[in-house]
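Field reference: sequence -> structure
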Amino acid sequence: MFKQRWIAIALLLAPASTSSETAFAQDTSMNQVTPQQLYKEALDLLAAKKFADAASKLEQVTQLMPNGIGAHETLGHCYEQLGRLGSASKEYARAEALAHAAGNSQRAARITTRLQELPRVATLKLVVSNELLALDALNIFVDGQSLEKSDLNTDVPIDRGKHVLEARAPNRETWTKEVEFAADGMHLEIPVLLMVQEHRMGAPSLEIVPPYPVSFGPQVTPTRWWQRPLGWASLSIGTASFATCGILSWVALNKKDLSGTNGCNQNGICDDVGLSLRNEALNLGNAATATAIVGGVLTAAGITFFLLPRSVEQSLPRKPSARQLAVNVTPMGVSVSGNF
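Structure field:
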């Protein structure tokens, strides 16, 4: 029953046979497997949920019959079951385009729905300069499969996992790069950079064209933009701490003087009221001392931030000079040679 249901679905997915496909089947020799046979074997494997084997058969069918709508749609279903969402998206898109070209809008709409129901697909964007795009023999590959120029500088669906990128062009060194998509829905933009190979005076030489300008000599690069604002903040808080210290000290002295007239005699003997005032004065004095220490530390830190440089001078390679000088010492004397 399960197998019969898949055969019924296959009849809906399979494209209408054209005259060219009929001619291809008639011209096929007896010992050669036809696309129709491969498609039937793929459906049997699909009914058994052997999606990897079914996909292998359907890949052969799409190579033999690239305009088969059903083959592309069924292959997209296999890829979707295997978790290869990027490949599934591509096959559904091909089937959708073929259905529109055949004038079957109802079928195209159904394939569009399947395409939209896919989970979020990982995408790759290969950024290629206009200079490289102008080359006639530019070839860019993803996992050995050649890309069209329409696939460059745009988001292309790709499967989750590791992939090998490669670019070739005349008089350029082959460029390769390995990338990994750890999860579906990721997006990567990879610039394609090629090394220029020039020939001078009959001898080949290699010149690397850097993607950014190269400068020579020392370069000052800002590294601590936060230093000046932090210095202002430290000085402000330190000043406020000193002001707080002064206020606390003044209150403490007032409390101490008040205790002398309210409960404490000249010998330092106090009643409960005087003792309470003396304790309050002592606590306020300790708080004033603490705020003074904090204010001193913050003020010193703020001054330090202002005095320290906010940038670091980086030593870059210096441009080679055209002048060369050599001093040769021999038993006969000293000689100087070089280019000036």
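Note: The first strand starts at residue 122 and ends at 127.
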